[in-house]
Design goal:
about 240 residues, alpha+beta, 2 helices, about 40% strand, disordered C terminus
Length: about 240
């Protein structure tokens, strides 16, 4: 009966359960989702794949072009040089220099348009003459000869060191003369033509001075000289 004396309120009521609305995304993060930056990641991945594909295709095309064309470098030689006058007085250089230059195109499928060739002659890095040649077209597997001629006089101040070197060269009868060829050329393959490029060529010559009757000593005969490409200045003058 003692249990009936206290207040009785019935069994305890459990706390209500919390309800959480399920996410529509299903917990994932796909390419079409607007969350988690997945769209940005997919775009970056797509761009990378496109770039890699383009690079691979370009490399394959370049390799196929090289395999078909097999391009070779043009070769330049000064086969003959005749120097009949080279005197210096009153800061004026008097000269008469004739050259014979061979240009060899060893390519089987590539022709060359020489739109312009400027031949420049220098002594001790001092420019004293120039001549413009061209234009002409050179066929495949062909050797073409050009003949620059430098004749006249020009005021060419030489330093004391250069003047001293001139006296030494005059005594030896052999003059170191640089001839540079500045060219505008285009290459032709089938029906395609390249854009204009500007390769520069340097020919370091040792030219014997001939006597008045046009002869020189056997020990001072001119030797054919191969010219060098100035690669770093192909595209700029």
């Amino acid at each position: 009966m003692s249990q009936l004396n206290g207040a009785y309120y019935g069994p305890s009521i459990p706390p209500p359960k919390s309800y959480r609305r399920p996410s529509r995304s299903g917990g994932g993060c796909g390419c079409l989702s607007c969350c988690c930056g997945c769209i940005f990641d997919c775009i970056i991945s797509l761009i990378c794949k496109i770039l890699v594909t383009v690079l691979v295709i370009a490399a394959v095309l370049v390799f196929l072009f090289w395999l078909i064309v097999r391009p070779n470098v043009l070769k330049f030689h000064v086969t003959d040089a005749s120097l009949t006058r080279f005197t210096y007085s009153n800061n004026t250089l008097h000269y008469n220099l004739a050259l014979n230059v061979s240009i060899r195109n060893p390519n089987k499928r590539v022709g060359v348009y020489y739109d312009q060739i400027e031949a420049v002659a220098l002594y001790e890095d001092a420019r004293f003459a120039s001549q413009t040649l061209g234009p002409f077209f050179q066929h495949t597997k062909n050797t073409t000869f050009i003949s620059p001629l430098f004749n006249g006089q020009r005021v060419t101040p030489l330093t004391a060191e250069q003047g001293s070197q001139f006296e030494k060269d005059n005594d030896s009868g052999i003059f170191p003369i640089d001839v540079k060829l500045f060219m505008n050329v285009r290459f032709k393959f089938l029906f395609f033509k390249s854009h204009t490029i500007r390769p520069n060529i340097r020919c370091g010559l040792h030219v014997p001075l001939k006597s008045r009757n046009g002869t020189s000593s056997p020990d001072a005969a001119f030797e054919a000289t191969e010219c060098d490409w100035i690669y770093k200045r192909w595209w700029i003058r």
